[in-house]
Amino acid sequence: MSTNQPEHVAVIMDGNGRWAQKRAHRRVWGHIRGSFVVSKIIRKASDLGLKSLTLYSFSTENWGRPSGEVSTLLKLLKKFLIRERSRVITHQIRFKVMGDYSSLPAETKELIAELEELTKDYKGLKLTIAFGYGGRAELVGAVNKWIEDNPGKKIDLNNLEKNLMVPDLGDVDLLIRTGGDHRISNFLLWQVAYAELVFTNTPWPDFTTKEFEQIVDKFRTVERRFGMVDHQKSLKESMKKAATNKKRFFSREIQG
Ligand code: IPE
Ligand code: IPE
Ligand code: MG
């Protein structure tokens, strides 16, 4: 059996609120506990040799939550940035935040900008935090950027990808959602086209590096076909082969 090394893993870190409520705590307690799990998973991702880790931390829709919960989540982001800074630098992690976070406090935005600038050429794990992120908004943004730069021209697959929020983020190989729900909730709609989807009932505050490793190990044994009939190395290769075969097929049809 062939083995795959996932390059890009994305995680929907869900189940914080219910975890806390089950323990008769306020929902925000779940977010606080969950934020420590984030640090452990980042470390594990580097150890497992992943190239990219993208974490869904706050969606465009999450702005609609009660203001106390939103303000705790904003504070936790700031604390996370301060706490992880030195570890990010030591491990040469390329750090980025994707999403519309323009309404964050100026101090938090400065912390993000400073860490992004400092780590932009680092060659370690590409760590991307999706904050104020929505997959639909990302796609609309990409198309609008294209129209602005290329009035009157049609957009194609490559150019759409080039205009996404983080153009070199690439396809997701493995998407994990904790918390028991089986949905995408507007996360990386473009990038998950051929991702393996893993849903675990474990709420995010209980998610361990051991479970993370088990999920990654299981991924290694999955046969990814990308629309073909046998194992294919990548979606790009599969698309190229499909296009060549299609051309060949039609020229044969025309020639009779
Ligand atoms: C995920 O946990 C964190 C965010 C969405 C910010 P939730 O807060 O959604 O927790 P549940 O799903 O309500 O338990
Ligand atoms: C998705 O979780 C967003 C994050 C984990 C940041 P939600 O809890 O917001 O998603 P729904 O409401 O269950 O779809
Ligand atoms: Mg949730």
Distance between the termini: 40 Å
Task: Write the H/E string, N to C.
Answer: EHHEHEHEHHEEHH
- Strand fraction equals 5-15%
Number of helices: 8
What general form does the structure show? globular
How many domains? The number is 2
CATH A-level architecture of the largest domain: 3-Layer(aba) Sandwich
In what order do the strands lie side by side in the largest sheet?
3-4-2-1-5-6
- Secondary structure tally: strands: 6
Bound molecule kinds, no repeats: 3-methylbut-3-enyl trihydrogen diphosphate, magnesium ion
Extract low-pLDDT stretches: none
CATH superfamily descriptor of the largest domain: Decaprenyl diphosphate synthase-like
Highest-level CATH class of the largest domain: Alpha Beta
Q: From the helix content, strand content and strand pairing, which structural class follows?
A: alpha/beta
Work out the helicity level.
40-55%
Please summarize the sheet with the most strands.
6 strands, parallel
Please explain how this structure is put together:
This protein is of the alpha/beta class. The chain has 2 domains: 217 residues, Undecaprenyl pyrophosphate synthetase; 27 residues. Strands 3-4-2-1-5-6 form a 6-stranded parallel β-sheet, with helices on both faces. Strand 3, helix 4 and strand 4 form a beta-alpha-beta unit. Helix 3 runs parallel beside helix 4. The structure holds 3-methylbut-3-enyl trihydrogen diphosphate (2 copies) and magnesium ion (MG). The site of one 3-methylbut-3-enyl trihydrogen diphosphate has 12 residues, from strand 2.
